[in-house]
Specification:
By secondary structure, this protein is an alpha+beta fold. Helix content is 15%, strand content 54%.
Amino acid sequence: MKKLKTIILKIFKWTGIAIVTILFLMFIIPILFPGTISQQVKLFANKHLAGELDYKKTHLTFFRHFPSLTVSVDEFLLKGSKPFAKDTLLAAKEVAVGINLKNLIFDGEVKIDEIYVTDAVANVFVNTKGEANYNVYVSKPSDKPKDTAKGGASIKLDLIRLKNWNIKYHDLSARVLVDAKGLNYTGKGGLSEDVFDLQTDLDIDKLDFSLDRIYYAKQKTLHADLITRINTNALTFVLRKNELRLNELPLKFTGYLSILKDGYDLDIKAASEKTTIRDMISVLPPQYLEWAKDTKIQGNSDLFFSLKGKFSEAKNLKPDLKARLLVKEGFVSNAQAPVPMNNLNMDLNVALPALNTDELTIDLKNLSFDLGKSNSFRAVVKTKGLDEILVDAKIKGAVNLQTLDDALGLNEIDMKGFIDTDIQSNGIFNLDKKLFPKTKGYFNLKNGWLKTSYYPNAIQNINILANVSNTDGTFKSLGVKLDPFKFDFEGNPVFINADLQNFEDLLYKVRAKGTLNVGRIYKVFAKKGFDVSGLIMANLSLNGRQSYATTGQYSKLDNRGTLILKNIKATTETLPKSFFIREGNFEFENEKMWFRKFFANYGKSDFALNGHLINTINYFIERKGTLHGKFNLNSKYILVDEFMALKSGDNSKKSIDVEYAKVENPSSSGVVVIPKNLDVSLGVNARKVEFQGLGLNNVKGTASVNSGQVYLKNTTFDIIGSRMGIDARYQDESPLTANYDVAVKVQDFNVQRAYKEIDMIREVATSAKDVKGIVSIDYKLKGDFDKNMNPIYPSLEGGGVINLRDVEVKNLKMLSAVGSGIGSKGFNDPDMKGVDIETHIKNNLIHVDKFTFKVSVLRPSVSGTTSFNGLLDLLVRIGLPPGGWIGLPVVVTGTHEKPKIKFLSKNGQGITEALYNKKINKVIRQEQRAAKKTRRQQRLDKKAQENKAKSAEKQIDKNLKK
């Protein structure tokens, strides 16, 4: 016993010594090596990270991620790679790297073998050009032998642990969005080996996934337990163990992914076999999951998915997608249902070769269910293509809506009525080619009734009888008869009768009458954001043929009636805000739709219209139809800035081009996007129009919108106390760029006031600060707007004449320097009254034609070139008395602020023009001093530039005349 006691005491003793030693080393090692570790980690970061890195504090400790020795960085911030250097890529409460203790103690080397990131937000972004913000790791291979004497950290990872991440991956080139919240990830394996197995444990609390703005997963939970074989030499990932659960739906994956130089090569197969319908329903949007909890659901389902092929934006390669969903012997019943939904079967196949929607195939081989006696539904539908769709469909059923409602146990909707339908369709649907499948069928809803939990009153007495027929597969034999479509809502009956025949040249007979409270009808369906209780009142009778309007046979038309809108909100996909139609009173008279009263607001802007539209029937029939019209527009105030496409507003249904442009340029306003299907002229009378802080008062003239371009003709307005006349043309090229032509004439223009109040004058004519008095301007310009709708100066082309009608030019530095050189103070206050200055603009250079003025008995003349950035290359000829026949040549170079004077010389130093690419709206090179040339060569260069500018003036005239 004594011996045993001694052994036990020794064990405790040495164990205690070991523990104390370990604890001592844990405290002492961070003290001994802090400089080495911090210096080498910082060296590694500076050497290998292209993005800007920032953090608050660093710690070297064993206790944050026990028992690993870790360098921890608090409040970590890493910005993206170019061109996203100002945007955050990763922000985290803590980023820690584990240090290999053996290498640190015995070799004095810092080997990173673990990474921990906690409480992080990551934004991974790829723009429409395929440029990514995550290329921050820079590897610099070298042919030189490795120098082992140099210090520095290296990575040989065995563990990656991410805790509580929110990560957003937005790829605009592939139109993919992945948004994961509450992500926890552990990855183990020899991550630095050439080939290794990565063990992955992944949990996500909420996962969103969308493709082309269509959400396929919304707020789903995800768990993944994977083993992936990774080959770092070939950048290939092979799925070995692959168990994944999306909500309650289990999925298994097989396949591989290889990262290529310009994309991916992948072959992924996924399957969820022998699961239940309830498991399948768990992946539906969240609003349907509450319903599933209280509903008895039985039956089996299988899901198969594959994605195979190469993805390369540069080579226009995309993989093939296939999917199949099988539902067998389904049973759905609510506890209160007298009859369940029985024999629910579905076989749905989807194929998308090369992710090309033109080749999209949807094959619904079977969709069927029964709701007891005389209540059944069967559908077989196959389509191929999107713009041109090959259709083969058979749909037949007779369903009591109340029985369906009871069987499904829908809590938020009550339905009544009886639906009977029998439709067969086979052939090609193509709007452009005017093809329609051979079709025969009907849809009949009797005594319908619909009420939701969102609004207390029901839509009642819904009756729809629609017959469709097509005998030869063309629009010519297509007939649609709607007799009747009617319903009652809040005591207001609405009915529509329509008989439409021959869609190649539509023969129509439509009768519509009723009052509809739009705001309340939207509340029935819980549509958020429609906060206007608008009214639509119709009493219309439309009778005619489409060609009667297009060929001018207006006497054969019998279109009449009224349409009244009150307090209606409307949006378009290119404007950031909604139009609010306070009152719209429209009258139909054969070919014309008259605007008898129309009052609307858009943000701070107001509009009153009266006039008419032509081709309204054809416009709604033809997808590419154009609206023609003539109006008078009156307004108290129009703020152009509100119409810029990327401005903030309440419109959530913008086009994908506008949406992506905003994502890539969050701080930009964009340009105004013009509708392409309008041909409308407007007599404009606006009290004030404001653009970029510039106020135009009493605007009067003619504006027209045609094929996506806006024209102003004979338009006048007051600006800084002067009446200006303008002809102009404007056209957007994208939500971020636009081009324009403008011809301006103005009399009695106050130079000093213009310089103080107009930004463009200060930038274009910097010398105007030294000029006081009145001028007249006759000028023509064309150019481009940038993504903030500011003029791009190197894009400007054109020219014109400025008449110095009554001016004082004092202390202009260039002339004062010339005067100082010859001892004449008169150059500080020359007589320029009545002088015409003709200039031509091209590629950021302003070419000045020769003009002459008076300085006492002297007759100076000036010609040459200057630039928007202030460079000078001018020739001043000082005509000496008598008559100025004998001249003293002076060359002026330098800048407006620091002119350089050279007497008795005609050889200046030219200015090389800026280079501007109109296709990409980008300045390739700014103007700069040219290498010294002979005066003759300079004259030839200047002449060539002036000829280009004059050609631009002629083109402006042509554009404006169009």
